[in-house]
Amino acid sequence: MTELTSSSASAATVAAARLLLTQMGLSPADLVIPDAQMPTFGELIPKVRARLSEGTLRTYNTHFDHLLAQWADRRLDEPSKTDLEEIASRIQADARVNRASRGGTSAVEHFISATRCLYRFAEDTGWIRPSDNPARKLAMPIRQPSHRQPIPSNQLTEICTVAATTGNDPELDSLILRLHIETACRRGGALALRPHDLDPDQCLIYLREKDGTDRWQPVSPTLMRHLLAHAEDRHGPRTGQLLRYRNGRPITGRRFDHIWNRVGQTLPWVTSQGISTHWLRHTTLTWVERTFSYAVAQKYAGHHSKSNGTTATYVKSDLTEVAAALAVLTGETHPLVPAYQPGTTGPSAR
Questions:
Q1: 3-state secondary structure of 207
Q2: Nearest CA-CA partner of 62 in 141, 123, 115
Q3: Which among 35, 161, 185, 312 is placed 20 to 30 Å from 85, CA to CA?
Q4: Is 283 exposed, middle or buried (0-12, 13-18, 19+ CB in 10 A)?
Q5: 197 near 239, Cβ under 8 Å?
Q6: Whole-prediction pTM
Q7: Residue 61 confidence (pLDDT) above 60
Q8: CATH class (in words) of the domain with range 153-330
């Protein structure tokens, strides 16, 4: 009797499933992906690359290249979770080691994110089922605390001096460093800056950064003059990239690497500690938090308050407070707070 009930229930389930598929205009065969349709990594990666933003592609591209070098002709459904973990282990072992590194965990995290991006596209296209997706089963490494720290004022002065007195375009490099020191912006924000984003009357620039943190950011009158002069001298279109070489060609992220490689040749501790542009963000934001408040530092950084607890909803900072902090940082009065007289100076690039 039990067997009859079970068999009857199974038949009823199958019948219901067939009815549902019919109503959806599908057949059981539609749920099976033919082997001939399953793409290889060499076929899939160019499709995914074409859909990514410039910043995301810059992060994932190295790992896409790694997968193409090893598995260009391999189908997407062939690698297992273990295969992906073996590649992740090799990436971690080969990661660059310096004082700023965190045991290669960041490289592994980016590899897993890049792999998940590929398989997510394959899922959305119907090439692979979520249950068959090996990237879903990969565990993200535990993120280690960052080794970045604020750069002491005397060392920051040394860095700016070397950048301003060496290299093939010290004027450009000094402008880049001052932009990052004053605004604590990310590299992507500097690269996305356009002449059209400059408001000289209020000494504001419009930054477009990751996670939709687009915002107006105060800058000093001195920096604004140099940004305007740079745009005019290097013939940047109003809606084109602002930071350019002398020949008018827009810079890329390679210019930042060039700056730190060159500075590190003169100041070996820059190389040994792995100091990069992001250290400038740490330096400025730490100073703002210590000198003013966490709320002002949060606004200065362009961080959203919703992820920092309920209290942050009530203690928000505003643009004028950021401008006041900048006035103290640079020692220059800002148009948004003309009555505010800077009394001390911070880690400026002057």
A1: strand
A2: 115
A3: 35
A4: buried
A5: no
A6: 0.69
A7: yes
A8: mainly alpha
Mean pLDDT of 200-207: 97
Residues 6+ apart with CB under 8 A from 150: 279, 282, 283, 286, 287, 347
Q: How far is residue 189's CA from residue 197's CA, in Å, rounded to a whole number?
A: 11
Q: Which long-range contacts (CB under 8 A, 24 or more apart) does 84-93 make?
A: 84/112, 84/115, 84/134, 84/135, 84/138, 85/138, 87/111, 88/112, 88/138, 91/63, 91/66, 92/141
Helix (H, G, I), strand (E, B) or coil at 204: strand
Architecture of domain 34-137: Orthogonal Bundle (1.10)
Taking only the tens place, the pLDDT of each residue in 296-328 is: 999 999 987 555 556 666 678 899 999 999 999
Query: Strand ranges (DSSP E) for 166-290?
Result: 198-199, 204-207, 215-218
Buried b (16+ CB within 10 A) or exposed e, 227-237: beebbeebebe
**Quick one: average pLDDT of 112-135?**
93
**Rounded to whole angstroms, how far apart are CA atoms 158 and 60?**
34
Three-state SS at 138? coil
Cα separation, 152 vs 129, whole angstroms: 52
Which whole-number Å values give the CA distances from 223 to 219, 280, 348, in the listed order?
A: 6, 16, 11
Contact between 200 and 217 under an 8 Å Cβ cutoff? The reply is: no
* Beta carbons of 211 and 227 less than 8 angstroms apart: no
Confidence of residue 338 (pLDDT cuts 50, 70, 90): confident
Domain ranges of the chain: 34-137, 153-330
